[in-house]
UniProtKB/TrEMBL annotation, chain A:
Annotated Gene3D superfamilies: 2.40.50.100, P-loop containing nucleotide triphosphate hydrolases
Limits of the Mop domain: 278-342
Any one GO biological process: molybdate ion transport
Organism of this sequence: Lentzea tibetensis
Protein name: ABC transporter ATP-binding protein
Residues in ABC transporter domain copies: 1-229
UniProtKB/TrEMBL annotation, chain C:
Identification of the protein by name: Molybdate-binding protein ModA
Keywords recorded for this protein, A-Z: Cell membrane, Membrane, Metal-binding, Molybdenum, Signal, Transport, Tungsten
PROSITE patterns: PROKAR_LIPOPROTEIN
Main location (coarse class): membrane
Gene Ontology CC, one term: plasma membrane
GO molecular function, one term: molybdate ion binding
Gene3D superfamilies: Periplasmic binding protein-like II
Leader sequence residues: 1-25
Length: 343, 252, 257
């Protein structure tokens, strides 16, 4: 059964208006910048805040149910494990609260701890667990009641980088095994891309784009998404192979198109020259260095010009050009590197 | 360090004064006199009952103040502390005005049920609970406010009712605060004098608690008063130290 | 008025001499009783002494009388522990003896008033108390002073004389506490001093009883040996003993010694 949610939350300075559908077994990631309303949406789904939302699963609607009567499981950002209970009691809590006998609840909880690889930590108090272990206990606790909807609120945000990689892949495995509906709230594009089947991008309380990770990465529709996936992104109007950009300037592309389009190309497609280059590239324009940022293996240069552009160049090039903010340069871009799609 | 030592001395020197002045020779005979035993027993029973009442009503009240959705919560919070600032004798008079034989509520208790609270052991318990309750409420409320309400949300998402959440999640997490409040509350109830003598009067075996006995002994026999004070002191210190080790030691 | 002036003159003169005890009275001596004095007085003297204090201050510009009203035994203990008092007015000779025994008072105390007990009942006498025998009935709510305080000791004496075994519901720590219970209607009857009945106003009413004379309470007053302001202390004691002082005390219900 598909879960349909029309979430409407109104606050003094903020309104959330989001429609979501989640298929059984599907993981949907709600991705967006801070303050976009991701957590508000999660809380509305969980019944933790008052809203005039409509949530439907098959024949049943959840609108009038308080949180404790909704068939949900939540993994909170900092897990919120009950400190005075053992890991086993934490996992068994939901079952006990729903009326399962203690022995049965403990048996189920033990099985879940075993599944997340923490069988030997059943008697441990949460404060003795590592971050990754606590996250797995929280997941087991959320899943132990066999919920229809699993809500994950930034489940990896509290972990350090090295733990994160391992926990992320484990989480992905558990999510694949879970037959219910999953909503993952995150601001980390990598978490979303790796874990989710579908992305819903939220900005200012509204859905600005949705699709599979592949679709979103290839064809971002807002500056935020483009920034997330690391592409130069423009809006323009095409006339054959010539595209006039909304912010000024023009680009020549290889394939002729027409009408309003989005234009993207990777920063790595951009070349920089101290003098105006001669020869094949059809897109060249003057620009000045606005900022330089060192990444792992490349240097990202932010350039003011018409249009503004991000360029990834090798460290060798940086050394050769002796780049300083304010330096005048020439930007060059091959037409074949530019990708367009209708607006 | 020095201020701490001064603070400690300030608290302990009066105690030392009591011990220094104690009539050690007659102490045993005073100690085991039936009057002292009676007053001590009454004190312990009443203070404990008052503490139970405070727990039964004070913890939910603290929860209401910390978490409840009530208008004018700040004002309510201030009102709860009134018994702290009110001279206990005034508190006793206030209790008489409400629960006394001619009191707002008391007259109906008397007419309808034939219940009269002043001059009874129940009256002692009520007076002590009235004065001691704020200590419990304030410390439990503080603990509740410091506790993260998101744990209650987590419990709700796991299907726990409000009551189960309170019992299994909230209460255990504020246990140190509850214990501290209970200890304070009990100690305050044990030492209660003004409200008790005003509301419940003074009659041996019925309403004469240790502090009342101490006060009256002071009128004629200061030595006996010192002995009584020392007894009260030793018993309360003993009980509190015992509880502290068991409860607070276990809770952390 | 003449008497007042005479008393003031006497007081002033004595103070001027800077000695305690009767001395020369130069008629032309300037008003010299100044400064503060602290009077420790039995709680039952509260109203009448406050009035006397105000009059004393008016008659002696530059003087200031501070009062500490409390139970006589508590006051006696405070004095014996070195409290900086100038005058002690006790509700019982026994408490005065406590301070003369330790030498805190060396002058011989003077009895300045007497007080006797009276039955006090709430206005309208809802408990229908008519005399001491009613105090023995279990169904009546009765308050008495604890035996440890003077009014309780006096009550014990009158009950002995009347051959009544009282059945009190409470033994209060002082007269004022007893009166509170009567005023609030919490008890049907109580025994307190006549002066207290008078001071309590119209919320209560007093009932005379024959045995009251069997427990007459003498109130002694004396300046303290170590009075910080000995001259004024003596002047105040003399003022209390003056005709003006006695008149004020008589109005409060005290009997002359």
């Amino acid at each position: 059964m598909t879960l349909h949610a029309a979430l409407h939350v109104t606050r003094e300075t903020f309104a959330l208006d989001v429609d979501l559908t989640i298929e059984p077994g599907e993981v949907v990631a709600l991705l967006g910048p801070n303050g976009a309303g991701k957590t508000t949406a999660l809380r509305a789904l969980a019944g933790l805040l008052v809203s005039d939302s409509t949530i439907r699963l098959g024949e049943s609607t959840w609108d009038d149910l308080p949180a404790e009567r909704r068939p949900i499981g939540v993994v909170f950002q900092d897990y919120l494990l009950f400190a005075h209970m053992t890991a086993l009691d934490n996992v068994a809590f939901g079952l006990r609260a729903r009326g399962t006998r203690k022995a049965d609840a403990n048996a189920v909880a033990a099985r879940w701890l075993d599944q997340v690889g923490l069988a030997e930590f059943a008697g441990a108090k949460p404060r003795t667990l590592s971050g990754g272990q606590a996250q797995r206990v929280a997941l087991a606790r959320a899943l132990a009641t066999d919920p229809e909807l699993l809500l994950l609120d930034e489940p990896l945000a509290a972990l350090d980088a090295s733990t994160r990689l391992r926990v992320r892949s484990e989480l992905g495995r558990h999510l694949r095994d879970y037959p219910g509906h999953t909503l993952l709230v995150t601001h980390d594009p990598l978490d979303a891309m790796v874990l989710a089947d579908r992305l819903v991008i939220l900005e200012n309380g509204r859905v600005v784009q949705h699709g599979t990770p592949r679709e979103v990465v290839r064809q971002p529709r807002t500056d935020y998404v483009a920034h997330l996936v690391g592409l130069n992104f423009y809006r323009g109007t095409a006339d054959g192979t010539e595209i006039h950009l909304d912010e000024g300037g023009a680009l020549t592309v290889a394939e002729p198109v027409s009408g309003p389009v989005h234009v993207v190309f990777p920063p790595s497609a951009v070349s920089l020259y101290p003098e105006k280059p001669v020869g094949s590239p059809r897109n060249t324009w003057p620009a000045t260095v606005a900022g330089i940022e060192q990444h792992a293996h490349t240097t990202r240069v932010e350039l003011d010009g018409t249009p503004t552009v991000l360029a990834d160049i090798t460290t060798a090039t940086v050394a050769e050009l002796r780049l300083q903010p304010g330096d005048p340069l020439w930007v060059s871009l091959k037409a074949t590197e530019i990708h367009t799609y209708p607006r | 360090m020095l201020p701490a030592l001064i603070g400690l001395a300030f608290l302990l020197v009066p105690l030392a004064g009591l011990l220094a002045k104690a009539p050690w020779a007659t102490l045993p005979s005073q100690l085991f006199s039936p009057e002292v035993g009676q007053a001590l027993q009454l004190s312990l029973v009443c203070a404990s009952l008052a503490t139970v009442i405070c727990l039964l009503f004070g913890v939910p009240l603290a929860w209401l103040l910390a978490r409840g959705d009530v208008p004018g919560r700040g004002f309510l919070r201030a009102l709860v502390t009134v018994p702290l600032v009110l001279p206990p004798v005034v508190g006793g008079v206030a209790l008489l005005l409400v629960l006394g034989r001619r009191g707002l509520v008391g007259q109906y208790l008397d007419q309808w049920f034939g219940v009269s609270l002043p001059f009874t052991t129940t009256g002692v318990v009520l007076a002590e609970a009235f004065v001691a309750m704020p200590f419990l409420v304030i410390s439990v409320e503080g603990a509740l406010r410091a506790a993260d309400p998101r744990f209650e949300e987590a419990a709700a998402t796991l299907g726990a009712s409000r009551w189960l959440t309170f019992r299994r999640v909230t209460l255990p997490s504020v246990m140190p605060g509850v214990v501290a409040g209970t200890v304070l509350c009990w100690a305050r109830a044990l030492g209660e004098f003004g409200a008790t003598i005003t509301f419940a009067g003074n009659f041996p075996g019925k309403t004469t608690t240790m502090p009342l006995a101490v006060y009256l002994a002071l009128e004629t026999d200061p030595d006996a008063a010192i002995v009584l004070s020392i007894v009260l002191l030793l018993v309360s210190v003993g009980v509190l130290a015992g509880l502290r080790d068991r409860w607070i030691g276990g809770a952390t | 008025m003449k008497k007042l002036l005479a008393a003031v003159a006497a007081a002033v003169a004595l103070a001027g001499c800077g000695v305690s005890g009767p001395g020369l009275v130069p008629p032309t001596s300037p008003p010299a009783v100044t400064g503060e004095i602290t009077v420790f007085a039995a709680a039952s003297l509260t109203e009448s002494f406050k009035e006397l204090g105000a009059e004393f201050e008016a008659a002696n510009p530059g003087s200031k009388v501070n009062f500490n009203f409390a139970g006589s035994s508590a006051l006696a203990q405070q004095i014996n522990q070195g409290a900086p008092a100038d005058v002690f007015a006790s509700a019982a000779p026994a408490n005065m003896k406590q301070v003369t025994d330790t030498g805190a008072v060396t002058a011989s105390p003077t009895t300045f008033v007497k007080n006797t007990l009276q039955i006090v009942v709430p206005k309208g006498n809802p408990g229908k108390i008519s005399g001491l025998p009613d105090f023995a009935q279990a169904d009546k709510k009765i308050a008495l002073c604890a035996e440890q305080v003077p009014c309780g000791a006096a009550a014990k004496k009158v009950f002995q004389v009347a051959k009544v075994t009282p059945a009190p519901d409470t033994l209060e720590q002082d007269v004022k506490a007893v009166l509170t219970k009567v005023q609030l209607g919490e008890v049907d009857g109580a025994l307190v001093y006549r002066t207290d009945v008078k001071a309590a106003g119209d919320k209560v009413q007093g009932i005379e009883f024959a045995e009251a004379d069997q427990a007459v309470n003498d109130y002694p007053i004396a300046p303290l040996a170590k009075a910080p302001n000995a001259a004024a202390a003596k002047a105040f004691v003399d003022y209390v003993l003056s005709d003006k002082g006695r008149k004020a005390l008589a109005e409060a219900g005290f009997a002359a010694p």
